[in-house]
Design a protein that fits this description.
The chain is an alpha/beta fold. It has two domains: 177 residues, 3-Layer(aba) Sandwich (D-Maltodextrin-Binding Protein, domain 2); 201 residues, Periplasmic binding protein-like II (D-Maltodextrin-Binding Protein, domain 2, 3-Layer(aba) Sandwich), CATH 3.40.190. The chain has 20 helices and nine strands. Strands 1, 2, 3, 4, 5, 6, 7, 8 and 9 form a nine-stranded mixed sheet that branches. α3 links the parallel β1 and β2. α3 packs antiparallel against α16 and α9 crosses α19. The protein is globular and about 65 Å long.
Length: 439
């Protein structure tokens, strides 16, 4: 598979709001969860206790995935009928604070949906999570995939579930109306946008109100400018964020302004989605998770995707990928043994099949095929032409994180307060506070 982040070196810094805790090993937790039998007469009591129902809670920020997880839980219960699971998501903008507060008080959900990379590692380093290295099935995943939930001590604390990929969604009906094809080069993409604008169709559903949209968009489009090897040069110290290649990727973001909606600085994700599903906008740079949401919002919407086309004639099209999230076990859970059974389930093809078809995202488990043709296309691109989402995979550490600094600076640029060069300077200043290149 192509979804491999070779040579990745990630510095993970625990958030200052998190309190240090003590983490016990998986083996210790498994043994402590079962009282030892002291006599032969105690054995029947143990068997009875083992058959009693146990209820676990799953914390997540994915409110839109509630129906999908109901089906995932139903699949798990086929082989674990005595374990009940409740998927209890929190609004995505409130999840981190809510989870951290609960963990600091010694509570929180039994099973925790980890934000990927530095954010998840921070929880592990603070002692809130149970190590999962010995869980059956963990060898299903590559080391690079497990990197998304690896602590600074090298132990793995989460089971990666699905990949996310960012590409360009487009409205097939609008494209057909104006005789437009999937662009193969950046120049073709701009000509497509020009044609749409001339016909009073908004080329891109886009807004700069929410910072994460900016880093997501920049992360997807930038490889078209600087290729797939430039980030490796930053990681090794042979380049930095003030290098011309990175500055050019920021200028690219600025150059797209004529193709954005009016008043785009006040537009957020809900508005962007609404523009696309109501066919006011023809294209949207977005993560694959929006496919299921948009299809539900408008079942008649004829949409497709294409990779980001290269600027250079000899360049290659790309999609941007990363592990979207992993599931971990709360070190303070009263039912670790049962939670670990769910971790094992997450490594199986049974989970992979239901996840790819219900969440409609590429599976982290090799060899899982999607039934939906568009999800299959997204998965194929993620397997064959992907490049890592650098801001998340490599630069989501720092306080504030370098990713957040990029987002804030891009918002400043769109408010005409910063130039692309100044954006690059701010990003480099942030990286200098924590990132150490490794040759």
């Amino acid at each position: 598979m192509k979804r491999v982040f070779s040579g990745a070196l990630v510095t993970m810094i625990a958030a200052t709001s998190m309190l240090a805790g003590c983490s016990s090993s998986t083996n210790n937790s498994a043994s402590s969860a079962q009282p030892a039998a002291t006599s032969a007469s105690a054995a029947p009591a143990q068997t009875t206790a083992a058959q009693e129902k146990v209820k676990l809670t799953i914390g997540s920020w994915r409110t839109e995935d509630t129906e999908a997880y109901a089906k995932i839980i139903a699949e798990f219960k086929k082989t674990n009928p005595n374990i009940d699971l409740e998927f209890k998501p929190t609004k995505n903008t409130e999840y981190n604070t809510s989870l951290n507060t609960a963990l600091q008080s010694g509570s929180g959900p039994d099973i925790i949906h980890l934000r990927p990379y530095a954010a998840g590692a921070a929880l592990a380093d603070a002692g809130y999570l149970e190590p999962l290295d010995s869980v059956k099935g963990m060898d299903t995943f590559s080391k690079d995939t497990l990197l998304a939930a690896t602590g600074s001590n090298g132990k793995v604390y989460g089971v990666p579930t699905v990949f996310s990929s960012t590409q360009i969604f487009y409205n097939k009906k609008i494209f057909q109306k104006y005789n437009l094809q999937e662009p193969k080069t950046w120049d073709e993409l701009i000509k497509t946008a020009d044609t749409l604008k001339q016909n009073k169709v908004t080329p891109f559903a886009f807004g700069s109100k929410e910072g994460w949209i900016l880093s997501l968009t920049q992360g997807a489009l930038a490889p078209s400018v600087y290729g797939t090897d430039f980030i490796k040069k930053i990681l090794s110290g042979d380049a930095n964020f003030k290098s011309p290649e990175f500055v050019s990727s920021i200028k690219q973001m600025k150059d797209l302004v004529p193709y954005f909606p009016d008043n785009y600085v006040g537009i957020g994700m809900d508005d962007m989605r609404n523009m696309f599903v109501t066919e006011q906008a023809a294209m949207m740079v977005m993560g694959d998770w929006e496919y299921a949401v948009m299809k539900k919002a408008n079942p008649d919407l004829q949409m497709d995707v294409f990779p980001v086309p290269p600027v250079k004639a000899d360049g290659k099209p790309t999609v941007t990928t990363w592990v979207d999230g992993s599931f971990a076990v709360n070190a303070k859970s009263a039912h670790k043994q049962e939670a670990l059974k769910f971790m094992e389930f997450l490594t199986t093809k049974a989970f992979g099949i239901v996840a790819v078809n219900e969440l409609q995202k590429p599976s982290t488990i090799p060899g899982i095929q999607a039934n939906d043709p568009l999800v299959a296309k997204i998965t194929k691109n993620a397997d064959s032409i992907s490049t890592p989402y650098a801001a998340v995979v490599y630069f989501s550490a720092g306080n504030p994180t370098t990713k957040v600094t990029l987002e804030n600076s891009l918002q400043g640029m769109y408010l005409n307060k910063l130039t692309p060069e100044q954006v690059a300077e701010e990003v480099q200043k942030s990286a200098d506070t924590w990132f150490k290149p490794k040759k």
